[in-house]
Design goal:
The complex is a heterodimer of chains A (about 220) and B (about 575). Chain A has about 220 residues and is mainly α. Helices cover about 65% and strands about 5% of the residues of chain A. Chain A has 2 domains: about 80 residues, no CATH class; about 120 residues, no CATH class. Classes of the chains: A mainly alpha (about 220), B mainly alpha (about 575).
């Protein structure tokens, strides 16, 4: 008998009933797997919109103003924006951090010329004890270094730098919440792993069942 | 023997830990620098246990050394798969990537688990039915080529070395943390210990050890999270779910944790300014893109199904059914850890948010998080020892895979077919030593984060071994010439990516470096390399007449696919 067979194996051209069943099962599972993993990420990409943090909106409004004749409140707001962005800590690249620190120093100097200490700077900015203010104060303690510079002319590329840190890809999937998670985060970090195990379980059970049915020796 | 020893071991740890608790309180809260007595003792106990188990289960011949006698149950094998798999990259590296790059790091979580679905449905049972000992064995046999077997062996060795580099970096970091010594010295000491252990035990011991190692790894990894979640007012009954609120808190910022004044061990308030880039996808703030996420995930998945030391595990189960179920169990055991890794990174963001914390070593962030949360020092010590176990279990598996490729596939089957079993064993041991020395040398160069370094090995495997197994099993038309073409393309892409990476690491700017850096990045070049290799294999096989010999086709059709 064996001389008459070509013994060709091709996933896309199954011959025996066992092979056909196996190919069908594998195809279904792989499609579910691919759609669940990559389909979802493509969906995220497809529906996302660049959304800026309020701090960036504030910055866009303040930045042109402070370079002309800034009001005290505008300088204070700008200082808060800079401190808040510096608060992203290790996310902020070294050279970007230096740029923001420079801008912060100029801002404080414009608010209160000759300010030396972070304590004085905090007063000039009007940082209180509520909300995020204590955290902004911590940033000030760490990042503030007084300077004699009274204008922003030496600070190049700050708007682009701020955009880099303050615009995020958001959509209904990132803004919805599930079990406390942003929905997309839960899906990727938790649900996909459960799905993988379920897919594997289905496959192992189905193959066992099929082999028993067809009397295939494993 | 393994179970008894593990019970003895756990008792020893508990007794010793309790006795030394008072002393440990002072030293385990130092993030870096000092010698830490309790962690050091726990580490010594754990390593001694591993070596003892290895000695009791010493490999008695080449068959034992390579395939552990094929007497492991699916659950046991699943644990061994998980332990073998959960390396320093899983234990330390994933949290590190997520700590630094937020959602981007989840590509590693998904990539390193999703690949198992492919591995199961496309390969596990079939590989077992094919019935060889090593990956190069399969390649040489299926493509009827001693040359390809040799190339397969060299690739196995190279992949194992690349993979090991990341592990040695993890071992170095933890030895540095525990012993309070210089990183380079820590790598030398850690490398010597893991080498000794692998040489003594061989694979039978390794497999037994892996089951014990799995328990240590998973217990040491999970316990701190319950404590941290409870301490900082989150849902601690199931921190894997409870940390959703932590992620949201990092994203939106928290002035205080639930109105309390909880502090980390440094006295910094557990509060954080808004950092939406942590949770939002492909944030520009981290310099990451959607393409990178997809490419990394894809490359890691294909690599999972192409790693010789992972594939090799299917040879140690008695039947194809066991191979399949060992993957199911293995994936479950792996996911137990992978559900938890992001929890560390989320807590780490809050606990290290004070600006004067400076830039912590990301790869040690898991241990730092436990320290910063000021939890029981013995548990922090156990966590660090768990990290070392994770690296050890993987390194020993890798060294065995690499050494067997050297001795069995390269020396015995390709160069000296008349070598005695004794000579083969000697060559396996020499191969292990040589690999350990090479890995130590490369690890000293500090080329990248652990997860990144390990990702290189995945891309390599995905570009070279994966296509050979995929086509070798599922298409009898893939012939020797096609296999050569695929391997050459896969190796070509890999060489370009790695050359640019190494040149860049040493400050040399090669032409079109930006282009290569983006599209053939060392962490994910397989996204294109693997498909190209498959296309080359198929195309050349067609051109050369798909002339796989009848006996191989017959074997494939009847034995592997039950035609």
């Amino acid at each position: 008998m064996s001389e008459q067979r070509d013994f060709n194996v091709n996933f896309f051209k199954p011959k025996s009933e066992a092979e056909k069943a196996n190919t069908k099962l594998i195809s279904i599972l792989v499609v579910i797997w691919a759609v669940a993993v990559f389909g979802f990420q493509f969906l995220l990409i497809g529906i996302q919109k660049p959304v800026e943090e309020q701090t960036l909106t504030d910055f866009r409004e303040l930045w042109p103003k402070v370079q002309q004749a800034p009001a005290e409140s505008e300088l204070q707001s700008l200082a808060r924006v800079l401190l808040s962005t510096l608060g992203k800590n290790t996310t902020v690249k070294e050279q970007d951090r230096e740029l923001m620190k420079e801008a912060l120093a100029v801002t404080v100097n414009l608010l209160e010329p000759g300010t030396r200490t972070a304590e004085d700077a905090a007063q000039a900015i009007g940082l209180g004890a509520d909300g995020f203010d204590p955290l902004l104060k911590d940033q000030l303690d760490y990042h503030y270094a007084s300077t004699g510079t009274m204008n922003y002319s030496g600070i190049k590329g700050l708007p682009e730098t701020m955009e880099k840190y303050l615009i995020h890809n958001r959509s209904i999937l990132t803004d919805s919440s599930f079990l406390g998670f942003p929905l997309h985060y839960f899906y990727t970090a938790q649900f996909l792993l459960i799905l993988f195990i379920v897919l594997c379980l289905i496959y192992a059970k189905a193959v066992d069942k099929k082999n028993t049915r067809l009397g295939i020796e494993d | 023997m393994g179970k008894k020893l593990s019970i003895v071991f756990i008792l020893l740890v508990m007794c010793c830990g309790t006795a030394l608790f008072a002393e440990g309180t002072a030293d385990a809260t130092t993030l870096e620098g000092d010698f830490k007595l309790v962690p050091a003792i726990i580490l010594i106990i754990i390593l001694s246990t591993f070596v003892l188990v290895g000695v009791f289960n010493r490999a008695k011949g080449t068959k034992d050394y390579w395939a552990a006698g094929r007497n492991i149950s699916p659950v046991g094998s699943g644990m061994a798969i998980a332990s073998n798999w959960m390396s320093a990259a899983s234990f330390l590296g994933m949290a590190a990537i997520m700590y630094g790059s937020g959602y981007h790091g989840l590509a590693y979580v998904v990539g390193w688990t999703g690949g198992y679905v492919l591995l199961l449905v496309l390969m596990a049972g079939q590989i077992r039915r094919y019935g060889k000992y090593t990956a190069p064995d399969f390649i040489g046999d299926r493509f009827y080529s001693r040359g390809l077997r040799g190339v397969g062996a060299l690739l196995t060795i190279f992949i194992s070395i690349t993979y090991c580099v990341g592990q040695f970096a993890g071992i170095g970091l933890m030895f540095k943390w525990i012993l309070g010594i210089d990183y380079n010295m820590a790598i030398l000491i850690g490398g010597a210990v893991v080498l000794t252990y692998t040489l003594i035990s061989g694979m039978l011991g390794v497999t037994k050890n892996m089951q014990i190692q799995y328990i240590i790894i998973i217990v040491s990894f999970i316990i701190p999270l319950f404590i941290i979640a409870q301490k900082f007012g989150y849902f601690w009954g199931l921190p894997q779910i409870g940390y959703g609120e932590v992620v949201t808190n990092v994203s939106n910022g928290i002035a205080e944790v639930k109105g309390t004044v909880l502090q980390n061990v440094m006295g910094h308030k557990a509060a954080i300014l808004p950092q939406p880039e942590y949770a939002m996808p492909w944030a520009a703030a981290h310099g990451t893109s959607a393409f990178q996420w997809l490419a990394i995930c894809f490359a890691l998945m294909l690599g999972t199904a192409g790693l010789p030391h992972v594939i090799q595990r299917f040879y140690v189960v008695p039947k194809a059914k066991d191979a399949r179920w060992s993957v199911v169990w293995g994936l479950f055991f792996i996911c137990l850890l992978y559900w938890n890794a992001p929890v560390y990174s989320a807590f780490a963001k809050i606990l290290s948010s004070a600006p004067n914390m400076g830039a912590l070593s990301k790869d040690a962030i898991v241990v730092y998080t436990a320290q910063l949360a000021d939890i029981f020092p013995l548990i922090v010590a156990f966590l660090a020892a768990g990290a070392v176990s994770a690296a050890f279990s993987t390194v020993s598996g890798l060294l065995v895979a690499g050494a067997s490729a050297f001795s069995h596939d390269l020396y015995f089957n390709t160069l000296k077919p008349d070598a005695s079993e004794k000579t083969q064993m000697l060559m396996a041991r020499l191969g292990t030593v040589a690999m350990a020395i090479i890995v130590t040398g490369i690890a000293l160069l500090k080329l990248g984060l652990i997860a990144n370094l390990v990702a290189v090995a995945f891309s390599l495997a995905a570009c070279t071994i994966f296509p050979l197994f995929l086509l070798g099993i599922w298409w009898s038309g893939s012939n020797r010439q096609g296999a050569w073409a695929g391997v050459i393309v896969g190796i070509g892409v890999s060489v370009i990516a790695i050359t640019y990476f190494i040149a860049g690491s040493f400050g040399t700017q090669l032409p079109a470096a930006d282009f290569v850096g983006k599209w053939l990045n060392p962490w994910y070049f397989a996204w294109i390399g693997a498909p190209l290799s498959i296309i080359a294999n198929v195309a050349v096989s067609f051109i050369t007449g798909r002339d796989t010999p009848l006996e191989i086709r017959e074997f494939l059709a009847t034995k592997v696919h039950n035609q």
